[in-house]
Design a protein that fits this description.
The protein is an alpha/beta fold and 307 residues long. It folds into 2 domains: 225 residues, Spore Coat Polysaccharide Biosynthesis Protein SpsA, Chain A, CATH 3.90.550; 64 residues. Strands 1, 2, 3, 4, 5, 6, 7, 8, 9 and 10 form a 10-stranded mixed β-sheet that branches. Strand 1, helix 2 and strand 2 form a beta-alpha-beta unit. The N terminus is likely disordered.
Length: 307
């Protein structure tokens, strides 16, 4: 470990996380950083993203070494992280969900990937489920399919028996729960698109970073734990709205015309009727309204709209 640190003179990491009404969860993240980290040059930035209460005075007493930023309004995942990036001065920006917890050697291993593979724009660790610590959530993503705009999360739900260990993969997309971005990639590709607000913004950003000439990698020697869907709920109307709205938006931004047509046919004839009926049978009328609003937003707004 010391040899790796010594080979990274002056390389500073900015750890950035966004809080929205989850002070206890954010505190657990900070505690995990301070109890596991041995990397010498870090700064920690927490963005309180329009929470109903201002938790910063309490946090400042407990964590005086952390930089806290308060936003009066909820800027979404992308906007909150962009606010943190604007205040960061690290060579590498480690964007992590506040519902993650660090493990020993995480930062050293991730930064080392940029040194070993200079064309890396983003590197992610292996992610395991916090509530099921032996199960993998992520060791990479496959490419989106042309018609469904779906892909596979490599390793998800598998028992971690070391089948992916000690390897560095090129992957199609970073995972928004934990992604370390180089300053150069961020400057060349730009910040995350804030009109995604929640979900799919890391996929859009991944595609932009790839278009800027960088690779996205997973280093399975680095590990982080993730508490899935703490902020919005596992199946909330909010999640249904943004997952559908932003899936369509991603297709509009990045698919060529004929693939957009194929996707529209698939979504209109299969996905929308299937979900509509499923929610209707279960009496989830707010979910029906959410998916209808998701479609309407894309019919009435441009790809750059913030409405």
């Amino acid at each position: 470990m010391m040899n790796l640190i010594e080979n990274l003179p002056g390389k500073k990491i900015s750890i950035i996380s966004v809080n929205y009404n989850q002070p206890a969860v954010t505190g657990q993240l900070l505690d995990s950083i301070f109890t596991t980290n041995t990397y010498p040059s870090i700064e920690i930035i927490i963005v309180d993203n329009g929470s109903s209460e201002n938790f910063i005075p309490i946090w400042q007493d407990r964590y005086p070494q952390v930089k806290f930023i308060h936003s009066e309004v909820n800027l979404g995942f992308a906007g909150g992280n962009n606010l943190g990036i604007g205040a960061a001065d690290g060579d590498y920006l480690f964007l992590v969900n506040n519902d993650t917890e660090f493990t020993a050697g995480l930062l050293e291993t991730l930064v080392g990937t940029f040194q070993d593979f200079p064309d890396t724009g983003i590197v992610c660790p292996k992610i395991r489920y916090f509530e099921h610590p032996g199960k993998i959530q992520y060791v990479g993503f496959t490419e989106l399919t042309s018609i469904t705009a779906r892909n596979q999360c490599v390793g998800q739900f598998e028992d971690d028996k070391g089948q992916y260990d000690q390897r560095v993969f090129i992957t199609a997309f970073a995972h928004g729960a934990a992604m370390m971005v180089s300053r150069e990639a961020c400057q060349r590709a730009g910040l995350m698109a804030e009109n995604f607000f929640l979900y799919y913004e890391e996929m859009d950003w991944s595609l932009n970073i790839r278009k800027a000439g960088f690779k996205i990698r997973v280093n399975t020697s680095a590990l982080i734990y993730h508490k899935e869907s703490v902020s919005v709920g596992a199946d909330s109307p909010l999640k249904i709205y943004y997952m559908n709205r932003n899936r369509i938006l991603l297709v509009r931004k990045h698919f060529v015309f004929y693939k957009q047509v194929l996707f529209c046919i698939y979504f209109g004839l299969i996905v929308f009727p299937r979900n509509f009926l499923r929610f209707l049978i279960r009496g989830k009328f707010k979910h029906i309204a959410a998916i209808c609003r998701a479609v309407y937003w894309n019919l009435s707004n441009s790809t750059n709209s913030f409405q």
